[in-house]
């Protein structure tokens, strides 16, 4: 048996039904027994919406009024009556089971499922399987119009049925006509059989995604504006009624491992994707969500993974994933299991835990945990900010895609100089410093295209490139780590800087003209330290380290192997030369290796590693070749070199009145080996900053 169903909302009608999030206000249905071609009673029920403000189109088409709807029952009551009346009609016809049949997919997928999900009540099982009359009609009559162009009226006209809608009430004519169309399809000339109903997934299925998998770009969307705490299940609920592919929700993370409010969602078909696009600016709580088309490549960049460890962890399907953050670095699997306790058992015990580590094997303080059901996961989330050891632990819902992003990116973490060119040519240049004096031997470039790189700047400078100091190009980034459009260039003399400023001022780079000004090293230093230059003078910088831009790199790429002869870059602003009692003594030369490519001779590289998930930024350095260290030791009394990556920690967000005592108190419980790595960043009397660079941190 079929139950022919028709509905209308308080807003858009026809092809846009459900696209405006308006509530259901009308349901009309009738039972049809296919073998005997008998029908039950036709029922029409008004639905009381929370918002009775009807659109003009709704008033015109349906003839309904807010006054009439105000006397109706709410949706949950109407659906209860629906089930009872359908069961009663089936008994009269001697039947017990039925399947819904609607005009298209919008009423079921775009209206009933989203609305009941928002109102927090469950639909009965009958609403998870239905026949799309338009598809069935096109299968029965291949010569008819395409499915997307079909309407009840066009199908009736194709069969030569009466199409005068004014003879019946709104909704009644539609159901009667749909029944007549079904009987025509059941005639001896057609003998159509209803065999393959449309299905709606009961719940979202999690699972891993391989980078080698093929993802159709016509099935992927990008959702933007999500609450930061939203999980894959929340996103699946937003798209309730549409079938998301297994493991098809990928939450996007920023460079710090935090969720950035975006997600890529993969659906089972392009038809489902097109319906998802109609939910553009629908609401998740109080926030509206933007929905755009995306590509399969974008989805694989976020959700794809190749690690065997991750694949094994995610091989247990339909698990609830919880992310733990802030674990002590010494925490073991037993510690985590003991913290969670018997009330929330982990799936597979130790096999259900996955610790996130840096490429060198050090723990990041993050871990992912699998639970077999929602109840256990909820019990675990109740332990949010409880203490393990001496630290409070944060717990959040997570997704399979987030596991792959976080864990694999830790495995693939490389400096922002992904590969060093070969051959590597050893040279002994003049000692590299960031100028601090008042001599105007620098130039400032303002208004650079945001896509401009080092090669573009060198081409822009033309013949003056030969007059740039080694490591003399400094590109300025904004607080988001993106190009600000400014750059500073250290020239070999003030005369050279003056000539460049005169020659290149307002010269075109790509489609923009660039302003070039002569300035001093002191002014340049202020900007690199976070200050600003304006017409009234210098604006002091905030207390933060300089943001010297590294070259661009791909976020998802194979880990680069750095050769033993890799260059040692020591930015003066981060690791200043140690002051000695002989202030007048000349600074000893530093042995530095330069890449062979001419362009990289000018760039002041600072090797940053991607920071761990939602943890402070970690600064890593490329280890110095033994030969360089030996040569430096032979020619200098002392040259500061960090012994290993990760020996320097950077603190952000300090109160402005913080002193050395407060910092040492903050690190109470850790022992460091003090030596002459402490030093002042040489600025001017107007602005000085102390950088504490301990040689090694050792946990007691």
From TrEMBL:
Alphabetical list of SMART domains matching this protein: RRM
Ranges for domain RRM: 219-296, 320-400
Keywords: mRNA processing, mRNA splicing, Nucleus, Repeat, RNA-binding
Chief site of localization: nucleus
A single cellular component GO annotation: nucleus
Family of this protein: Belongs to the ESRP family.
The protein's name: Epithelial splicing regulatory protein 2
């Amino acid at each position: 048996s079929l139950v022919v169903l028709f509905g209308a909302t308080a807003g858009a009608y026809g092809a846009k039904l459900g696209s405006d999030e308006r509530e259901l206000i009308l349901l009309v249905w009738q039972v049809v027994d296919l073998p005997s071609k008998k029908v039950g009673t036709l029922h029409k029920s008004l639905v009381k919406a929370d918002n009775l403000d009807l659109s003009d189109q709704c008033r015109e088409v349906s003839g309904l009024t807010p006054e009439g709807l105000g006397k109706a029952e709410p949706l949950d009551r109407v659906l209860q009556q629906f089930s009872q009346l359908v069961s009663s009609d089936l008994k009269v016809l001697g039947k017990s089971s039925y399947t819904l049949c609607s005009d298209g997919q919008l009423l079921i997928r775009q209206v009933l499922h989203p609305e009941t999900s928002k109102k927090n009540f469950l639909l009965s099982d009958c609403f998870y399987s239905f026949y799309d009359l338009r598809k069935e009609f096109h299968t029965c009559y291949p010569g008819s119009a395409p499915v997307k162009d079909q309407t009840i009226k066009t199908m009736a006209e194709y069969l030569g049925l009466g199409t005068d809608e004014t003879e019946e009430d709104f909704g009644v004519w539609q159901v009667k006509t749909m029944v007549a169309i079904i009987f025509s399809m059941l005639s001896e000339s057609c003998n159509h059989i209803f065999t393959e109903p449309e299905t709606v997934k009961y719940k979202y299925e999690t699972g891993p995604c391989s980078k080698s998998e093929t993802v159709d770009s016509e099935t992927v969307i990008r959702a933007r504006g999500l609450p930061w705490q939203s999980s894959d299940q929340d996103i699946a609920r937003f798209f309730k009624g549409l079938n998301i592919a297994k493991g098809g929700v990928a939450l996007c993370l920023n460079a710090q491992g935090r969720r950035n409010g975006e997600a890529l969602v993969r659906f089972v078909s392009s038809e489902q994707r097109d319906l998802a696009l109609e939910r553009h600016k629908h609401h998740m709580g109080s926030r509206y969500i933007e929905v755009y088309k995306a590509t399969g490549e974008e989805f694989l960049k976020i959700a794809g993974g190749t690690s065997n460890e991750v694949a094994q962890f995610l091989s247990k399907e339909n698990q609830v994933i919880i992310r733990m953050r802030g674990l002590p670095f010494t925490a073991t699997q037993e510690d985590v299991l003991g913290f969670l306790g018997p009330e929330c058992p982990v799936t597979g015990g130790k096999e259900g835990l996955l610790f996130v580590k840096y490429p060198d094997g050090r723990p990041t303080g993050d871990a992912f945990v699998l639970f077999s059901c929602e109840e256990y996961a909820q019990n675990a989330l109740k332990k949010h900010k409880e203490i393990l050891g001496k630290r409070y632990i944060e717990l959040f819902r997570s997704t399979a895609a987030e596991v792959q992003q976080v864990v694999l990116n830790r495995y693939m973490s490389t400096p922002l100089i992904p590969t060093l060119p070969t051959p590597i040519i050893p040279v002994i240049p003049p000692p590299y410093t960031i100028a601090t004096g008042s001599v105007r031997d620098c130039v400032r470039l303002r208004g650079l295209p945001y896509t401009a790189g080092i090669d573009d700047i060198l081409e822009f400078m033309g013949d003056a490139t030969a007059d740039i100091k080694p490591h003399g190009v400094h590109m300025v980034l904004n607080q988001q780590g993106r190009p600000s459009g400014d750059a500073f260039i250290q020239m070999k003399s003030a005369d050279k800087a003056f000539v460049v400023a005169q020659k290149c001022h307002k010269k075109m780079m790509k489609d923009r003209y660039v302003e070039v000004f002569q300035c001093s090293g002191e002014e340049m230093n202020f900007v690199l330290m976070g200050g600003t230059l304006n017409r009234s003078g210098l604006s002091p910088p905030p207390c933060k380290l300089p943001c010297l831009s590294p070259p661009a790199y791909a976020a998802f790429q194979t880990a680069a192997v750095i050769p033993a002869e890799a260059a040692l870059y020591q930015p003066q602003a981060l690791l200043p030369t140690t002051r000695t009692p002989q202030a007048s003594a000349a600074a000893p030369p530093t042995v530095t290796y330069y890449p062979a490519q001419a362009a990289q001779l000018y760039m002041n590289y600072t090797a940053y590693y991607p920071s761990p998930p939602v943890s402070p930024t970690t600064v890593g350095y490329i280890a110095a070749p033994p030969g360089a260290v030996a040569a430096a030791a032979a020619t200098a009394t002392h040259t500061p070199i960090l012994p290993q990556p990760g020996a320097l920690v950077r603190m952000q967000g300090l109160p402005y009145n913080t002193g050395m005592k407060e910092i040492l108190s903050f690190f109470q419980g850790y022992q460091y080996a003090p030596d002459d790595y402490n030093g002042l960043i040489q600025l001017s009397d107007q602005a000085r900053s102390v950088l504490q660079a301990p040689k090694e941190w050792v946990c007691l």
